Each structure stands twice: as structure tokens, then as C-alpha cells.
From TrEMBL:
Gene3D superfamilies, A to Z: Aldolase class I (3.20.20.70), Cobalamin-binding domain (3.40.50.280)
Annotated Radical SAM core domain residues: 218-446
One Gene Ontology cellular component: cytosol
Cofactor(s) recorded in Swiss-Prot or TrEMBL: [4Fe-4S] cluster
Organism: Desulfatibacillum alkenivorans DSM 16219
Protein name as annotated: Radical SAM superfamily enzyme YgiQ, UPF0313 family
One MF annotation (Gene Ontology) recorded for this entry: catalytic activity
Sequence ranges assigned to domain B12-binding in this UniProt record: 28-200
UniProt keyword annotation of Nucleotide-binding present: no
UniProt keyword list: Iron, Iron-sulfur, Metal-binding, S-adenosyl-L-methionine
InterPro entries: Aldolase_TIM, BchE-like, Cobalamin-bd, Cobalamin-bd_sf, Elp3/MiaA/NifB-like_rSAM, Methyltransferase_Class_B, rSAM, rSAM_sf
Length: 459
């Protein structure tokens, strides 16, 4: 259902208060894919934009086609992650060589249609997006919204149009496609489409001045996504973080602590999920002061890092602090443990740094049920014997290997090599970049290799 709680912040623009504020609806679209699982995924960027608009005086609401937290009847883990509802769909014709089940993940279309049709008509619709190859779900969401409200302007933003702007403009059906960061431009966009004249209450890059993300629009959140930084100082060849967030920005640890305390006091939350790409960079200045405040207050929190942390900074003190603070799900950004075959992918870590970090985590009290190391599979021209060796090295270090599929992404250093190694024309359609189908190999997708690697991880 649509949620429109009372504002948390006083409207920034008092001069517009005599008129009824325009209504802005944020939509989180369906996912169409061969596989999808809710690993604490929330559209945090959209939450921030709705919070900024609300502070500027607009009336905001939100609808999640993925259906959370209404899917309580599904089996969830005790920290809030779990499966989505899903309905079978025909696979896209251009991926007809892939013998895998394809699905829509989220609420049934009839439910979404009923909910939106019964809602108050908005003056502007904002649709977000994440993985570019999920665009069919984005398109279905846009089509349904335009069917219900054909005369309401609809703007598409997020990762997909930022990476593939021409594709989004040509095929999405949105009235406007917005690319790049929106925090300093979102109020102007809303003014332009609604005829209002609100002032923007934030400046781009001043993360501590942003209002808290509009997490309250979920109704009853079960965890809080937390951002202590934006961007990343590294430029790994497979990652688009530097393109999507050109500047690496940090928040003051006191400001992060105050936000976490706010969510705890308002909703009684214990679980906090860090969305950072580089949370442990300069830990003495940022991460450790934050954890020290949490420990000093005895908050009894649980923390999760699905985006991975940098192993180089897992010193004995950092590892011990993480254990004491209550980290329950830790992912390490390893990519490969065969360091002679990193092929310039990144410069984040050496073999000794990995072994030291693994030892520090074990000595702090963590075991493999909590700590996993991401290993990339599906890279261009990848030596899968090296992947198998990496799995063995990680397990011997007392860490759980976690396979993560490589996604070829425009504007990354590996893009040209990915195009050359693929059996598809990657530039022709974002669907060809779907990581589930191993797009960067000449041979068609086969379960044999994937099953073998998964069995090695589990054995």
C-alpha cells in the first residue's frame, strides 16, 4: 500500500505553504531476471530524494513493486533478508539460448494495479532503477503507471539510465530520463514539472546536511540502510562506482550515529545495513569512532555489509571492534585469491594482507558462518582453475567463499575486454550484460561449471 506519513522535517520553503503542495510519488520497479534475492536491498537513493523533496515542502509518497515488507509470509532470515514473491515469465527472446527459468520478482501486477488505481493522483512520478539488465521490469512499471495516470509526468532516474542514457530515452516510455546524481537538482526538476517554486534545502556533496532518507515511507521498516560515505577512492577495473559517484565523500561519525539512534528510537530497530563502497577506508578517522560511540552506549545492534569491506583495513583492532559491536554478516572484497592472476583488476590487497585480515577476523571471534569473501566469476577470459584455487585458499584461511557473478558495465576499464570476449553484442542491449548468463564467454551458459564451483564452495 502507499504510505504518506507526516513529515519529519519542517518544510524548507515557507513561501509556498499557502497553496496545497504538489504530490510526488516514488516508484521502486519490479525485477525481471533469472534469479533475484533480497539481500537487504532498498532504493536508498530514492529515499533520500523523497526526503529532500519533503523538506522542500512537497507531499511525497512511495510504492514498492517488490512488495516489502508485505511478504512476511515468505521465509526470511532473522535479520530481514529473504526471497521475493515471483511469477514465471517468458525469457527475453534475445536470451533464448539460456536454459534457465525467468521470472518477475515482486507483487502480482493485479495487486499493484489495484493499489495504484486506488491512490490519490500524483502530480509527478519518479521511477528509480538499479541493474541495467533489469530494465524490462522498469518498463513494465512505467507502462502501468502511464496507463493509470497518462497525463502525469514521469521521470526515470537511477543507475540504468545513467549508464545507458540513449537506451532509456529511446525505449523506456518515461517522459524524461534523468542521469547522474540528483540531490542538488531534484527540487528544480520537481518545480519544473509541477509549476511550484520550492528552494532546494541541500547542497550536493554536503552529506551530513541531507535529511534522513524517507525510510518511514515503508510503513514499518525491519532494518535501516545506512550510508557513511558515497563513492570510492579505488578505481577497480570491473566497478562503475567512480563513474556513478565521481567524488569520494565521507559523513561525520557523529552524524551517522545520530541517524542510527533516530531509527532505533523511532522503530526499535536492531539491524543496520551499510551500503558503503569503502566503509573501512581510514578506519581510525571514521569507522572506529562510530563503533566506539555505539559500544559506549551499549546499543546491542546487528550490522551487515553486503557491499563488502576492504580487507587491507581489517587490523586486529578493527576486527575486534567489529566483533564487539555485533557484526553478523560480513563480506570481504577479495575477487580472487590467486594474486598472480589478478591481471590489474584492482590494487586493493596483497596475498599477505588477505591472510592477515582473515587471521585477525578469526582471532577476534568470527567464524566462516559470518565472514564470507566475494570471488568474481564470469570475468572476460577467466581461468576457472584459478577460481577453484581461490576457493581452496579462502577455505583454508577459515573464510567462506561467496561466488559473485561479474557484470560487464559501460564506462569501466574492463568494458572493452568484456565486449571482445562475449558471445553477444554487449553494446546492442543491456540484457546481454546479465551476469546470470555468463555473458563474457564464447560458450553458451551451462549449469555444469556453475554447479561445480558452487559444490566446491559448499564442500
Amino acid at each position: 500500500m502507499l504510505c504518506t506519513p507526516m513529515p519529519q522535517d519542517e518544510p524548507h520553503n515557507a513561501k509556498t505553504m499557502n497553496a496545497a503542495p504538489p504530490r510526488i510519488l516514488g516508484l521502486n520497479p519490479w525485477i525481471h531476471d533469472f534469479a533475484a534475492y533480497d539481500v537487504w536491498a532498498r532504493p536508498l537513493g530514492l529515499y533520500y530524494l523523497l526526503a529532500i523533496l519533503r523538506k522542500a515542502g512537497f507531499s511525497v509518497s512511495y510504492y514498492d513493486c517488490l512488495g516489502r515488507p508485505d511478504t512476511s509470509h515468505l521465509k526470511k532470515n532473522r535479520y530481514g533478508a529473504g526471497p521475493y514473491l515471483k511469477q514465471a515469465l517468458p525469457a527475453p527472446k534475445i536470451l533464448g539460448d539460456v536454459k534457465r527459468r525467468f521470472s518477475r520478482y515482486g507483487l502480482e501486477p493485479e495487486r499493484v494495479r489495484k493499489d495504484l488505481s486506488g491512490a490519490e493522483k500524483p502530480d509527478l512520478i519518479l521511477v528509480t532503477s538499479l541493474m541495467a539488465y533489469w530494465y524490462p521490469g522498469v518498463f513494465e512499471t512505467i507502462a502501468l503507471a502511464k496507463e493509470i495516470w497518462p497525463d502525469v509526468p514521469l521521470v526515470l532516474g537511477g543507475t540504468y539510465p545513467t549508464l545507458w542514457p540513449d537506451h532509456a530515452r529511446n525505449f523506456s516510455g518515461a517522459d524524461e530520463v534523468f542521469t547522474g546524481l540528483a540531490d542538488e537538482r531534484i527540487v528544480d526538476l520537481a518545480n519544473r514539472h509541477t509549476g511550484w517554486s520550492a528552494d532546494n534545502p541541500v547542497k550536493s556533496g554536503a552529506l551530513d546536511d541531507f535529511p534522513y532518507p524517507a525510510l518511514d515511507l515503508e510503513g514499518a521498516p525491519v532494518f535501516a540502510p545506512v550510508l557513511t560515505s558515497r563513492g570510492c577512492p579505488f578505481r577497480c577495473h570491473y566497478c562503475a562506482s567512480g563513474f556513478l559517484n565521481p567524488e569520494f565523500l565521507r559523513r561525520d561519525p557523529d552524524a551517522v550515529f545520530d541517524e542510527m539512534l533516530y531509527w532505533r528510537e523511532r522503530y526499535g530497530l536492531r539491524d543496520y545495513v551499510f551500503y558503503d563502497d569503502a566503509m573501512l577506508v581510514q578506519p581510525e578517522k571514521y569507522f572506529l569512532p562510530l563503533m566506539d560511540k555505539i559500544l559506549s552506549r551499549g546499543l546491542n545492534c546487528r550490522f551487515h555489509t553486503p557491499n563488502a569491506v576492504h580487507i587491507r583495513n581489517l587490523t586486529p583492532r578493527t576486527a575486534k571492534t567489529m566483533f564487539q559491536a555485533g557484526f553478523q554478516t560480513i563480506r570481504l572484497g577479495l575477487e580472487t585469491a590467486v594474486f598472480s592472476k589478478r591481471n590489474g583488476m584492482d590494487a586493493k590487497i596483497t596475498r599477505q594482507e588477505f591472510l592477515d585480515g582473515a587471521r585477525n577476523m578469526k582471532e577476534a571471534g568470527f567464524d566462516a558462518s559470518v565472514v564470507g569473501a566475494y570471488l568474481l566469476i564470469g570475468l572476460p577470459n577467466q581461468d576457472y582453475e584459478a577460481v577453484k584455487e581461490s576457493i581452496s585458499i579462502v577455505k583454508e584461511a577459515g573464510i567462506r567463499p561467496v561466488l559473485t557473478h561479474y557484470t560487464p558495465i559501460p564506462h569501466t576499464a574492463l568494458w572493452e575486454e568484456a565486449k571482445a570476449s562475449s558471445r553477444y553484442n554487449l553494446e546492442a542491449d543491456p540484457l546481454y550484460t546479465n551476469r546470470a548468463v555468463f555473458p563474457c564467454q564464447k560458450a553458451p551458459f551451462s549449469w555444469k561449471l556453475l554447479s561445480e564451483l558452487k559444490n566446491l564452495c559448499a564442500g
